[in-house]
Amino acid sequence: MAGPEASGGRSGGGADRRRGADADATRGVYMISIAAELAGMHPQTLRIYETRGLITPKRSAKNTRLYSRDDVERLQRIQELTSELGLNLAGVERVTALERELERTRRRLERLEAQSARRERELEDEVERLRRVSRGEVVRYEQPGRALVRVRDARSSRRDPRLGR
Questions:
Q1: Of 101, 36, 29, 31, which is closest to residue 75 (Cα–Cα)?
Q2: What tens digit of pLDDT does each residue of 19-35 get?
Q3: How far apart are CA 92 and CA 55, in angstroms?
Q4: Does residue 57 carry a pLDDT above 90?
Q5: Percent helix, strand, coil in the chain (nearest 5)?
């Protein structure tokens, strides 16, 4: 039995299809009537949103609007904000701008956290390297007059009865 049934309902090349699906998310494939139906709104509403800059569909060679899966999801988000939350289009514009800014900030935070973790590992490695190289020769700094003195040095600075002092 060779086919989808033999592999648990999956056909070969699944990883390739997933990569293609990710690329297809931004590719304009739906004409305005289909995109409007998928988003649950009138095609004229999509044109209004395009005029307001809320959505930017791709264009075909003949200048037909083509909406991607991402565009349809954005339209559904706009529908949610206006219908369920009662926002007007100015509010939708502000919310979407804030969502984009939040996403940029999240990506920046992830980059900074990764950079910080790398630097921390580098510092830990350098401290370990210095420990190995110094073999305990590194001592804590003390202010003059309060510095720790090795016992051997303290004894030699006192009078040594054997030396007749």
A1: 36
A2: 555 658 788 789 999 99
A3: 11
A4: yes
A5: 60, 5, 35
* Domain containing residue 82: CATH number: 1.10.1660.10
How many structural domains does the chain have?
Answer: 1
Written as six digits, the tokens of 66 are 């083509």
Written as six digits, the tokens of 96 are: 């979407």
Each residue's pLDDT tens digit, 114-146: 999 999 999 999 988 888 887 766 666 777 776
DSSP code for 109: H
Run of H or E including 47: helix 43-52
Q: Which of 132, 148, 131 is nearest to 140 (CA)?
A: 148
Residue 35 belongs to a domain: yes
Q: How far apart are CA 34 and CA 98, in angstroms?
A: 28
Q: Tell me if 38 is assigned to some domain.
A: yes
Domain assignment of residue 59, given as a range: 18-86
**Whole-number Å distance between alpha carbons of 67 and 116:** 40
DSSP for residue 57: -
Q: Does 120 reside within a domain?
A: no
DSSP 67: B
